[in-house]
Specification:
The chain has about 170 residues and is mostly helical. The chain has helices spanning about 10, 50-60, 65-170; strands at about 25-30, 40-45. The longest helix is centred in the C-terminal third of the chain and has 105 residues, at about 65-170. The chain starts with 7 loop residues before the first helix and ends with a helix.
């Protein structure tokens, strides 16, 4: 790559008819497969105001050569292939992650449904247990009353037995 330098008359001071002169700018481009760190001069033309300026700009060599364009096309194709591979890989990774997420959500849904069913069964069983406990408490109160009556009957029977024994012993 040969750096481009504008013709010497382009660097000369402008004639009075020019509004502004073209300004050459020299810079070093970053290293890349296309430029390989070479120094390029950029020729920034001023607005065209005369045929002399137009001729001066037309004398400038083309910025790109065939090898440079071929190299650029090759690099663009490699970039396209890499990007296509990357996008395909990303798509398959996202599809796999989505499938796993869907499976986890279905499992979570089943677990929540099972938990709700189990909780409902537990509530129903607890209500039945409380009803049985309340029935037992009511029955226990009745049993206490019945036990008191049985004790009273036993005392009465004991008293009757004592009386019957006295009656039988006196005769």
């Amino acid at each position: 790559n040969i750096p481009y330098t504008p013709p010497k008359d382009a660097l000369a001071s402008p004639s009075p008819s020019f509004e502004s002169s073209p300004s050459p700018i020299s810079m070093t481009l970053p290293s890349s497969p296309l430029s390989q760190g070479s120094t390029h001069s950029l020729f920034v033309p001023a607005p065209l105001s005369s045929p002399a300026q137009t001729d001066l700009i037309m004398q400038r060599p083309p910025v790109f050569n065939e090898q440079m364009l071929s190299n650029l096309e090759t690099q663009a194709q490699k970039c396209n292939e890499t990007l296509s591979h990357l996008m395909g890989s990303l798509k398959s990774s996202l599809s796999a992650a989505s499938a796993i997420t869907v499976q986890h959500m279905e499992g979570y849904n089943e677990a929540v449904g099972s938990l709700a069913t189990t909780a409902e069964l537990c509530v129903n069983s607890t209500n039945q247990l409380l009803a049985l406990a309340q029935q037992l408490a009511t029955d226990s109160t009745n049993l206490t009353r019945l036990g008191t009556q049985v004790k009273d009957i036993k005392k009465s029977l004991d008293l009757l037995e004592i009386l019957v024994q006295r009656l039988c012993s006196t005769k």
